[in-house]
Amino acid sequence: MKTSFYKYQGAGNDFIMVDNRNLEFKASTALIAKLCNRRFGIGADGLILLENEVENSVDFKMVYYNSDGNESTLCGNGGRCIVAFAKQLGIIQKSCHFMAIDGLHQAHFEAELVSLSMPDVHLIQSYHSESFYLNTGSPHHVDFLSSIAGLDVQKEGARIRNSNLYGKAGSNINFVEVQDNFMKIRTYERGVEDETLACGTGVTAAAIAAHFAKKITGNEVAVQAIGGDLAVRFLLQNQVYTHIELVGPAKFVFKGEIECEA
Ligand SMILES: N[C@H](CCC[C@H](N)C(=O)O)C(=O)O
Predict the structure, then answer these.
(1) Which residues pair with 255 in a beta bridge?
(2) ipTM
(3) For the chain, which residues make up each domain, given as ranges?
(4) In this predicted structure, what is the pLDDT of residue 55?
(5) pLDDT, tens digit (0-9, with 9 covering 90-100), for 210-239
(6) How far is CA 155 from CA 81, 188, 193, in A?
(7) How far is CA 251 from CA 21, 96, 113, 219, 256, in A?
(8) At the topology level of CATH, where does 124-247 sit?
(9) 2-114+250-259 sits in which CATH class?
């Protein structure tokens, strides 16, 4: 059966997108892992299904799978890409509401960029002054370092991710360098099991942890990932980080068809 696949990327974090409103795409771990394989398939950090949401006040539903083929928690860059995809499909215009695994999200366009609402952050665990753990829709370990350029992120990220710190569920691992008015980040992503060029929930976690650790003072911060620039806005109200927005590019790459086993 021929299936149309779209490819999007948000700051180099890339995704296969499927318009699955007819529910014809039958997701399996093996099929998704094969489609995401950069040699034997299309190649991507993850695969995202756009489906109808039964609750009619919502424009669509997002289902996210990591490139290992397993369904996972919130994907921030993927959330921004599905908004651009929904506009390409004519489902939405300038703004939308959609349901993801962690609940309801709002999103809107800011010129070429997509701004996505992220879940509130109530709890930030600090191991010491430079190391934190928080959940921004996906679990994130954040280490602040004086320099991240020469770091072996694949090796160091895998070591922390597979340590006894995070058990079977694991965590995404972020290495962050704070400059005067922006931050640099590199991320080892759970479920990709490698460094990705950007990680939206990771960029969000880094921004919130930096403010919590008093490394930044404003309520908006620019974050430079290898694949592109993102921005995070937030408020701190009654010790809860709220009104969090992840802002950045979400670009269409191509559309193609593949013969998929039914
Ligand atoms: N790999 C992550 C989910 C996707 C995160 C990333 N692609 C993003 O943009 O947030 C996890 O399993 O926790």
Answers:
(1) 6
(2) 0.94
(3) 2-114+250-259, 124-247
(4) 77
(5) 999 999 999 999 999 999 999 999 999 999
(6) 29, 9, 10
(7) 21, 18, 9, 26, 16
(8) Diaminopimelate Epimerase; Chain A, domain 1 (3.10.310)
(9) alpha beta
Question: Which residue is listed with tokens 């759970």?
Answer: 190
Bridge partners of residue 18, in order along the sequence? 49
Q: Which of 36, 67, 68, 73 to mutate to test the pocket of ligand 1 (most atoms within 8 A of CB)?
A: 73
Q: Is 209 helix (H, G, I), strand (E, B) or coil?
A: helix
For the Cβ of 76 lying below 6 angstroms from any atom of ligand 1, the answer is yes
Q: Is 135 in the pocket of ligand 1 (CB under 6 A)?
A: no
Nearest CA among 117, 48, 50, 119 for reference residue 87: 50
Q: Return the active site residues.
A: 75, 199
Q: How far apart are CA 101 and CA 88, in angstroms?
A: 23
pTM value is 0.97
Does residue 73 or residue 262 have the better pLDDT?
73
Q: Do domains 2-114+250-259 and 124-247 have the same CATH topology?
A: yes
